[in-house]
Every structure is written in structure tokens, then in C-alpha cells.
Amino acid sequence: MKNGSITTILAGCMGMALSAALFAAPALAADKTVKIGNVEPLSGPSASVGVQGKQAREMAIEEINAAGGIKSLGGAKLELVYADSKSDPTVGVTETERLINTEKVNLMTGCWNSAVTYPATQVAERYGIPFVVPVAVRDTITERGFKNVFRIAAKDSWWVRDQFRFLKDMQEETGVKLQKIAFVFENGDWGTGFAEKWRELAKKDGYEVVLDEPYPSTATDLTPVVTKLKAAKPDIVMLVSNAADAILLTNTMAEMQVKPKVVLASGGGHADPKFLENTDTNALGIFDEVEWNTDVNKPAAKPANEKFKKKYGYDLTGESVDAYVAMYVIADALERAASTEPAKIRDALAATNLTTGPGMVVSYDGVQFDETGQNKNAGIVIVQVANVDGKPDRVTVWPKAARRAGYVPAFPANK
Amino acid sequence: MTAVIQAALNGAMMGAMYGLTALGLTLIFGVMKVVNFAHGSLLMVGMFSAYWLIRLTGIHPYLALVIVPPVLFVFGYYLQDVVIKPVFKAEGQVREPLTVIIVTTGVWYVLDNLALMLFGAEYRTVRTAISNKSFALGEFIISIPKFSGFVVAVATAVGLALFMRKTKTGKALRATSLDREAANLMGINQYRIYNIAFGLGTAIAGIAGCVLIPFYYVYPSVGVVFDIRAFIIVVLGGLGSIPGALLGGLVIGLIESVFSQFMASTWTEAIIYAIFLIILFVKPSGFFGHKQDW
């Protein structure tokens, strides 16, 4: 028995040595992969957004791998390991632990929901695993002094900052001076958060606030709010709405003939695919702030969107664009790191300065992280609902560099 | 001041439509002594029926008013006959049949989820000949769809009250509502009357659907939003009272619209519930309710 087992062990060792000699070398050269852990909401309330992000990532990975993978790593391929967060922070944390400990991922990306990303990045920081956050906008995600967290998208406070930049720029461009401003917002976390920052910036820019009105987004009738708006006679109306109330507000404003010079929404309900369908011409002239629009004036944007649409049957969205870019940022960092060592990847990410390549479909000029890990250049675009080929559609108007060629924004929209 | 009068006009129009949604609820309660939790879903069915009819045939929204309610009457009639009646019969001796209430809750879930499966969760509106049209009354703006809704709501309430007073069926409905055993003894078929009451309640939800759809959007759980208001209105106006439902609706609509001119509109919601509680303490039977002694 003893002899037998020794023989077995010996044979086993020989076999292992043989197979290592036979297969290990080519395996290192061609089949080497870099594992990227990705926590996303693939089921539950935010599943549709999670799936959009997953598809955008897959398209990017396919492109990167087809182009020869990571050359400095001998043509290593990128591999995504998905985990479903169900939008639940607890699940997000345990899945991040699993991906790092069991799946041995080299770096992490995700998780879309701010509530999930916040604790998940904390786990990665503890293990020293780099974490690329494409889109989770809560400010504090990159404000904790972490070394391994990098965010591509703009943060919350920048959305409001850019709304006021837009107003200023447009007034300078057109020579129109606007003074009175009204805030109308849903009374949830999102709306009240925006309103708080609006007040600050409106004061700083010297606007006169004539209405500051929260409303319940389940309201059956928003005529009372519109009546108030009519009485306040603002030049500018800033809105934060979900889909149903965005539709109701827009239609009621048309009905009550309330026509402020500028209506500026904050994405969300106004960016919902159902919004234009249900408001039609009533929405004409409305400005809306979004992460991305299909017509941004960027060379890589159009082919990427056409390819994506052909593959999955719908346009890229702001969220999926960020996920797509993130893959190129990761590939770029790996190329420069020439290592799968998390610490080296981290340093390469911190030194990112990506301004060209198929990944640059975003509205801004490049990806470069500041000392907190936030993409300094990240920006937002403002679109205007305009009549395009006889149908209301969203047209990019701001920043000026991304404006649709040949389009002159109607500002103010109602004279 | 202009804003307040404008708000009052809007509030009255919207309130009448809240009253209309409550009318069917109060009728079914009055006759059957059943709180119909499926009422909001029936309103949703009414709205979707009007939506598809207008969308597919392109007819004027008010032509839908002569088509949708009769169809919904038949739907409600058989819904009660097939689904609710057997449970009612099983609890025939009980004065306030609790299981029936649970059955109506079941109907609510089934209808909402059926709509979700069939039509998806998105919001839909139809753009009709009168959508977003308005006329000026002096310096005030009156929305045509809402004004028509107001007229239809008042006409429905008056029509229903006349029906209850003048016709034989109406009298049978009232008799059953007063005392179902006695009515039974007088040769009234209790369950047939229930079918009719439920059918009428559903038909009124259909009327409400037709007048709401030109300016409001429909989605599978739209009923919940109106349901809560309808319950408050029914209690406010007095359970089972037709003029009470209309008046209750007007009160809620006016509070919602006028109060929000003086404070953030998020507050009016709280005020409506506070008034609801006060009414429950002070006059539990509502404006026109009888002291319930059955």
C-alpha cells in the first residue's frame, strides 16, 4: 500500500511536471487573462440599467480583445466576472468580497447604484484592489481619502454646477439677461438634494428666486403647482421630476399657457424614453441635462452607437456610455502597468490621461483623475427638445464643443 | 387673488372628478356593504379601455363615453356574478362579510398584474382633439378636458340619483341597501341586485376613465393614486351617499388646489389626511351619511 501510494504520488508529480512543461508556456503567452470583477444590478428594480451597462461592457471587451488584448502583457485578454447586486448594498458587499477572495479578480468595476458602490468600494480599498466606478454619482464615493477608487462620471454637485454654467454661458452667447428663477422639484431625496444646491448657486450668481416649490411625485393633479408658477412669472424654471410628473407638468403648463423663457430639467423623468411620446409638441424648447446624447459631436460616438444599436436594438444611454468608456480606461491602464499586480494597476490608473481612441465617445475631452480619484474632465451635456424632421427630438446644445453641428439653440425658448 | 380664484376653479373641476371616482365605490358599499378594494383597478380598466378605443379607432374621446361604460357594466356584472357571489353566498348569514373584502383585494391584484403583463409598466396618454385645449373666462384659463370632466361628473351623479329614486331597479337597489333580508322577503333577488350594483359601479369607473384619459396618463397601478382619495371622499361624504361623494370630492379638490397656493403643495396631502381624521372623530357618518345600524 505504502509503495503504491508513493508511486502514485510520483506519477502524479511527473504528470504535473509534464503537463506544466507542455501547456504552461503557451498558456502564459496567449490565454493569459486579466479578471475584472463587476458588481451590477442584474435583477431587481434597477435591472434594466444593469443590463444596459453589461451589454456596453461586453461590446467594449470584445473590441479590446479582438484588437489584440493587452499587448504589454503578451496579448492578455480581458475577462469580466459578473455578480448581481440586486441593488442591495449588503449583497454588493458580499459579492465584492467573493470576487476578490474566491475569484481572485485583478481589479473591480461597478456598481451603478450609489448605495451599493459606497460600501463595495470600501471593501476593495481594504484589500488594495483598484475599483473603477463608471457611474454612481453620490459625491462622497470619491471623497473619503481612498487610494484605489476612480470615478469616470460627474458627481452629483457637478450636475447643478453645470446647470448654472449653462445658464451663464447661454446668456453670454445670446446677450439675453435673465433674472427671475423658479425651482420646482419632486420632494424625494433626489429633488430636495438638487434644490439645496440650486439655492446656493442661484444666490451666488445673483438670480432672484421667485418660487421654491417641492411637490409629491405621486400627485394626481399638478395644476396647483402650475398655477403658482403662472403667478410667480419666472424667467427660468428649474425642474427635478420623475417620469409621470414630468409628463403631467409639461402638459399642464401647455394647457395653462405658462411659458417661462427657459425650462431646464435635470434628466430623470425628462430623459425617460416615454417622456417625448406623451408630451409631443408640448415639450418643444425644454432644456434637459443628461449624461450623454446620441448626437454628441465626437468622432467615436456615432459608430459606437450604431454598432450597439445593431447588436442590442436600442441606443446607448448615459449609463452605458460610462460603462463602455470605463473598459477602455482599464485597458489603457493595464497596458501602461504591464502587470496584473493591483498596486501597479492602481498607479497606472492614477496616471491616466486618455484623450483618444475608440473609447472616447463621451461629451467631454478626456479622462484624467484628480487626487481623490474623480475624473476631472467629466461633464454633462444639455440637450434641447427641438423639431427634428417633423418630430420632437433631443438635440445637444451645451457644452458648445459638443453641440450638434449646425444647430442654433432657441434661447430663450419662449420670448 | 387671481391665482386663488384660478386655483379654486381648477380645484372644483378636479374635485368633481375625484367625486366621480368615488361614486362607484359609494354605490357598491351602499348596496352590498362591501368595501370594494378593486375599485381603483376598475378605474384603471376603464382608463385602459378608453385609451385603446381612442387610440385604435381615433374616435372623439366623448364618443367613448357611450361605448366604454356599457361594456364595463357587463364586465362588472359578471365579475360580481362569477367571482364575488360564491364567496358572498358562503358567508350569507354574516352582516359584514369580511372574506368578500379580501376577494376584492384579490381582484385588485389580479387586474393590476394582468394589465402589467399585457401593457407593461409605462405611462400612456392619448392625444385627442381636446387634449391641452383651454378657453379663457375673463382672465382665467379653463381647461376643456377638465371642464368636460366636471360636467360629466355632475351629470353622472344627478343621473344616478334620479335612477335610484325613479326606476323600479333603483328602488330595489335602495331597498336592498336598507335591509337585505326584508328586501329578499319582498321578492327582490338579492344577488341579481348585487350584480347590478357592481356593474353600475364599474360602469361609473368607465365614465371616469373616459373623462380622465384626455389629460391624465394611464399605467397598471394608476388606480392606487385615485383609490386613496376615493376612500377618503366616501367617508367624508357619508358611506353610501351619492351627493356626499360629489361634495366630498369637491372639498378634497378645493383643499388640494387652494391650500397649495399658500404653502408648499407637499403640505396639502397632510392637510387632507388631517381633515379626514377630524371628520372621523367629529362626525363618523360623514356629511350625508346615516347612522349605520345594520
TrEMBL record, chain A:
> What residue stretches are annotated with the Leucine-binding protein domain?
33-385
Q: What keywords is this UniProt entry annotated with? A: Amino-acid transport, Signal, Transport
SUPFAM superfamilies assigned to the protein according to its UniProt record, in alphabetical order: Periplasmic binding protein-like I (SSF53822)
Query: Where on the tree of life does the source sit, at the highest rank?
Result: Bacteria
Where is the signal peptide, in residue numbers?
1-29
Annotated GO biological processes are: amino acid transport
The family note in this entry says: Belongs to the leucine-binding protein family.
Q: What is this protein called?
A: ABC transporter substrate binding protein
Q: What is the lineage of its organism?
A: Bacteria, Pseudomonadati, Thermodesulfobacteriota, Desulfovibrionia, Desulfovibrionales
Automatic annotation (TrEMBL), chain B:
Q: Which UniProt keywords apply?
A: Amino-acid transport, Cell membrane, Membrane, Transmembrane, Transmembrane helix, Transport
Q: Where does the chain cross the membrane?
A: 12-31, 61-79, 99-119, 140-164, 193-219, 231-255, 261-282
Where does this protein reside within or beyond the cell?
Cell membrane
Keyword Disulfide bond tagged: no
Tell me which Pfam families the record gives. BPD_transp_2
A molecular function (GO) held by this record is: transmembrane transporter activity
Q: Which residues form the signal peptide?
A: none
Q: Name one GO biological process term.
A: amino acid transport
Give the record's membrane topology: Multi-pass membrane protein
InterPro entries, sorted:
ABC_transp_permease (IPR001851), BCAA_transport_permease (IPR052157)
Extract the coiled-coil ranges from the record: none
Single GO cellular component term: plasma membrane
Question: Which PANTHER family does the entry mention?
Answer: AMINO ACID ABC TRANSPORTER PERMEASE PROTEIN, BRANCHED-CHAIN AMINO ACID TRANSPORT SYSTEM PERMEASE PROTEIN LIVH
Which family is annotated?
Answer: Belongs to the binding-protein-dependent transport system permease family. LivHM subfamily.
The molecule here is called ABC transporter permease protein
- Lineage summary: Bacteria, Pseudomonadati, Thermodesulfobacteriota, Desulfovibrionia, Desulfovibrionales
